[in-house]
Amino acid sequence: MRHYEIVFIVHPDQSEQVPAMIERYRNTITQGGGTIHRIEDWGRRQLAYPIQKVFKAHYVLMNIEVNNAVLAELENAFRFNDAVLRHLTVMKSEAETGPSPMMKEEKSRNVTEAPAAGGDKPAEAKDAAAPAQPAA
User: Fold this and answer.
1) pTM above 0.85, yes or no
2) Which one of 4, 29, 83, 127 has the lowest number of neighbouring Cβ atoms within 10 Å?
């Protein structure tokens, strides 16, 4: 099985459907014998250029390990889902499990595990440490 990184963008009117879509794609991957290494919900972001007169969209990143049949099934699901505006699949040499650079944004959240407040603690610690430093 090969490692893939998939990013798909969803129409902003369908943002409420994103958790259900992620769960559907997760079931497709696991039932096909694949492994999910990372799923990140980047939230609604500005597009670089309008797509179908839409200026913002909901972004989702998935790092998975699947065979070609499951990948073809996923891409077919993306292609025939009207809510998915665009999708990109990139083959990777190894599994990406750490947080992506986009996870540093406040709106992003990792949906591989249960949502936790652990992502907010470093920012709070940094804010708490700032007043302790003398002003020069």
Assistant:
1) no
2) 127
